[in-house]
Amino acid sequence: MTAASRPPRLALxxxxxxxxxxxxxxxxxxxxxxxxxxxxxxxxxxxxRAGRRLGVPQEARYRDAAALLAATRDLDAVVIAxxxxxxxxxxxxxxxxxxxxxxEKPIAPDLAQLRALSAAARDAEVTVAHVLRxxxxxxxxxxxLDAGRLGRLVAIDHTENIGHWHFAxxxxxxxxxxxxxxxxxxxxxxxxxxxxxxxxxxxPCEQVTSLGERVHFRAENAPEGAPERCxxxxxxxxxxxxxxSRIYQQRFAGTDGWPVRVVAPEGGAAALDEAxxxxxxxxxxxxCDNDVVDHQVVQMRFANGVxxxxxxxxxxxxxxxxxxxxxxxxxxxxxxxxxxLELNDFASGRRERIEVGEAGAHGGGxxxxxxDFLERVAVRLRGGERSSPTALGEALDSHLMAFAAERxxxxxxSVRLSExxxxxx
Length: 425
What we know:
The protein is α/β, with parallel strands linked by helices. It folds into three domains: 9-132 and 365-390, NAD(P)-binding Rossmann-like Domain (Rossmann fold, 3-Layer(aba) Sandwich), CATH 3.40.50; 134-218 and 290-360 and 396-423, Dihydrodipicolinate Reductase, domain 2, CATH 3.30.360; 219-282, no CATH class. It is built from 13 helices and 15 strands. A nine-stranded mixed beta sheet has the order 14-13-12-11-7-10-9-8-15, covered by helices on one side. The chain is globular.
């Protein structure tokens, strides 16, 4: 079978929730579109789970990406879903091999690494996992905007409702709790929201102002008598909204997907109970080593005069995104979680309700991203070429916006993006 006639051959680097449970499972469910031929992760247990679930033989399981890329010759593409600070090295190695790359966001935690990857990529096939552009909900928003139904776009108000339980899981107890260990919260959680705003605005961002703090998840806010772990006889556990038992054993009772699978990868009530008694996800949210902000606002002005406000907050019940676009001749309200849009036409006074519907993780963006990536790799094997909506060059602005917002937050001032031009990739 020639390369042009067979499904693309992929390697997965990083076998956590995004690598294995999202991208790996999507490929496993569509074997006619791609074959996973090798996996890499420093965690031996993760390698065993991935190999077993994906049917990857023992000899194709590696403890690091460098070994995988050195040994696996018949390879077309690499999916990189390592921790934030480990994205660039395997991406550079894959590019040296001439492989197509799907890179989990954020691209890199700092400008220096962003510059290095951008210089190496040039015209290579690098797709950044800014999944919101692929979601049917936001494609519908963009379609309404491009059709001129709002007139001239003036402003956007966008909210990333993280969900109090989700924030406690990922940004207090979990992998993204520390800037040094991962990235600033805005970059880790909302770089694809910034990418979305750049896409909808239709022009580069010129100026950013941001405020953000770690408001609540601090030791001084711990209830009196709260121990280090929720299971160690906490006096307020029955009423604490952040209690580990409430989140993992009540809210997600009877499920084995995210976030329970992250806490107890092998599954089962006994494994979950053991993990909460001894692992990081059973810690009191006021006794963790977290330092990222839990509430942040970013104001942006784009080159065409469009202004946008982004709010990213832990303190919501639902895990969704809500958006409000304000134009000269109409406005559009939307809720991603409900798959609903409401369009108000100023001239006619008509109010139109548009149901996009629910479509899976990130509003169906995860699946659409992977399918598009695999199709483009297949086109590449046939000698063709097709551009990605979230190619590396398209994704750079969102990261520069995030870095400018962090500079603004730390220095308590407005920052022009031109200040970063000397650092721009």
